[in-house]
Amino acid sequence: MSGGSYYVPPTSKWPVLGSLALGLMLIGFGMILVYGLNGVMMAAGFVALLAVMGLWFRDVIRESRGGLYDAQMDRSFRQGMAWFIFSEVMFFAAFFGALFYVRTFALPWLDGEGAKGVAALLWPEFTASWPLLEPPGDVAGPREVLSPWQLPLVNTLILVGSSITLTVAHEGLKEGMRETTRNWLLVTVLLGLSFIVIQGVEYYEAYYHYGITLEAGIYGSTFFLLTGFHGAHVIIGATILAVMLLRILRGHFAAENHFGFEAACWYWHFVDVVWVGLFLFVYVF
């Protein structure tokens, strides 16, 4: 828009409907965990949330392509995306922090070390180790742990490679080479889907062959919390990139104006960096 004016969008019903859909999904998830009910309510909330997001994003795309956004709006979008990614950093920092706390403080205390070593009186026979295959008390630990040099290493190479292919696609868009952008973005989406499939295979192996479950002590719970939430972010990121691919095929974005695509790149690179941390501190060390 000319004249330096700031676009104010009309009143929207999507924030309220999105909140209701998210609440329905979380209530359904809680009912599964607490009462063991089926996932109909959670599935309904999830479908409703996807519908709201799709319609909301449709409106934003129409506003953008209609020329309603100016430089100030572009700065607002960039700041908003930066703060969103920062909140995601803090989200994963909490889970990494829990992992480091257990390994650095809680386990040594239970083994009689440190300022709170008196905790060793709870289970005198306990020996601190990581991975914790023999938790104290009546908890059954996993039978063994996954090798980091098999499926986890393959997934690491896939995600690192996907960051490279996405960077190539982004550079192609900035140079106006749409065919290059389309092809390399397609490769990135396929790599993301490959990661999801391989992690599904890994979960099957972990659960049924290695005894790594949410009930398998602190190792099992931290393993699934960290890798599970990351896997959910990969699914979200791959979905976003697939939408970007559809928009590229429809002729959206320009070499000098494509923050929607750039924001998707930011998110995907963030997900890749988190996985490198997971690979090192969950699988290797």
UniProtKB/TrEMBL annotation:
GO biological process: one example: aerobic electron transport chain
E.C. number: 7.1.1.9
Entry's Gene Ontology molecular function annotations: cytochrome-c oxidase activity
PANTHER family hit by this protein: CYTOCHROME C OXIDASE SUBUNIT 3 (PTHR11403:SF7), CYTOCHROME C OXIDASE SUBUNIT III (PTHR11403)
InterPro entries, sorted: Cyt_c/ubiquinol_Oxase_su3 (IPR024791), Cyt_c_oxase_su3_dom (IPR033945), Cyt_c_oxidase-like_su3 (IPR000298), Cyt_c_oxidase_su3-like_sf (IPR035973), Cyt_c_oxidase_su3_a-hlx (IPR013833)
Recorded family membership: Belongs to the cytochrome c oxidase subunit 3 family.
Enzyme superclass (EC): translocase
Organism phylogeny: Bacteria, Pseudomonadati, Pseudomonadota, Gammaproteobacteria, Oceanospirillales
Stated name of the protein: cytochrome-c oxidase
Source species: Halomonas icarae
Domain Heme-copper oxidase subunit III family profile: 2-285
Cellular component aspect of the GO annotation: plasma membrane
Keyword terms, alphabetized: Membrane, Translocase, Transmembrane, Transmembrane helix
